[in-house]
Amino acid sequence: MLLGPLADLLCRSALFVPGADLRKLERAAQAAADALIFDLEDAVAPTHKDLARRQVCEALAGASAGLRLVRVNGLDTAWGADDVEAVAQAGADGIVLPKCEQAAQLKAVVELLGSAPVKLIALIETPAGVLDLSALGDGGGRLLGLAFGHADFCRAAGLAQLRSDIGLAYHARCQVVLAARARGLAALDCVCLDVRDEEAFRADAVLGRDLGYDGKLCIHPAQVAIANSIYTPAPEAVVRARSVVDAWAQAQRDGLGVIAVDGEMVDAPVAAVQARVLERARRAGLVG
């Protein structure tokens, strides 16, 4: 699958799948996530890295719907370079680069990829990565999106709690989505570690959506449907968007720069926001 900008694709949910767990690899597609992230890094013990790489490559060779991404090990490890070359050859749509902090890291991955049509997502997980977002570069035109990893960020920052809704971690969460928006990249929100607490996940996903993220990283299949629902425009939002977009189109034909729709002011920025709602609904199959 040759990808355009990730922001132009539907990626409401991105489910991590441990590469060393064959049962989870085989069942991953059943979760109906918009993207699968086959994980070769944190979810795999050092003694199982080679096995995980082989199993992920086999999974990539099989047909599956949605985006097929792989979180490789960092290139500063003994497995990173082999990961990149292997999953690119196996047909991964994109590589998620962990603990991304510098443009040089993206450049090194691009050099390993050669001509393989594989895109990149930078996983921002450290204070240095957040501070250097403006200097990250575009990975030779391959960078599609930014994702925030709050657990590693909290650890690296010496924080006492693994929470992304307070303090420094919340600030970093905002900075990542802001950087993505400033550069026209997609933004994937951090995981929620409360895998057994549906309401906690729902609240965290709503917060991420309202911050401006395009979708959410998931660590359990049960989180996928919730993320898909929250990141899909509600029916009433679609009706409102259609009303505004249609009224704005007529206003443009009439030479008007500002109108009112149901008592609310609508100008070009407001109409553009509602047009984006309609486009997202179209990608979700809600409108033709």
Which second-level CATH architecture of the largest domain applies?
Alpha-Beta Barrel
What is the C-alpha radius of gyration, as a whole number of Å?
20 Å
How far apart the termini lie comes to 23 Å
Q: Globular, elongated, flat, extended or rod-shaped: what is the shape?
A: globular
Main beta sheet: 8 strands, parallel, barrel
CATH H level, superfamily name of the largest domain: Phosphoenolpyruvate-binding domains
- Structural class call reads alpha/beta
Helix content: 40-55%
CATH class of the largest domain: Alpha Beta
Low-confidence regions: none
Oligomer: single chain
What is the β-strand count?
Answer: 10
> What is the third-level CATH name, the topology of the largest domain?
TIM Barrel
Query: How are helices and strands ordered from N to C?
Result: EHEHEHEHEHEHHEHEHHEEH
Strand residue content? 15-25%
Instruction: Name the strands of the widest sheet in spatial order.
Output: 1-2-3-4-5-6-7-8
Q: Can you describe what's shown?
A:
The chain is an alpha/beta fold and 288 residues long. The chain folds into two domains: 6-230, Phosphoenolpyruvate-binding domains (TIM Barrel, Alpha-Beta Barrel); 235-283, no CATH class. 45% of the residues lie in helices and 16% in strands. The chain has helices spanning 22-27, 49-61, 80-90, 103-113, 127-131, 150-157, 167-183, 198-211, 221-230, 235-253, 268-283, and strands at 13-18, 35-39, 67-71, 94-97, 119-124, 143-148, 186-189, 215-218, 259-261, 264-266. The strands form two sheets. It has an eight-stranded parallel barrel, surrounded by five helices. Strands 9-10 form a two-stranded antiparallel sheet. A hairpin with a 2-residue loop joins β9 and β10 (264-266). α2 (49-61) packs parallel to α3, α8 crosses α9 and α10 crosses α11 (268-283). The two termini are 23 Å apart. The model has no long low-confidence stretch (mean pLDDT 94).
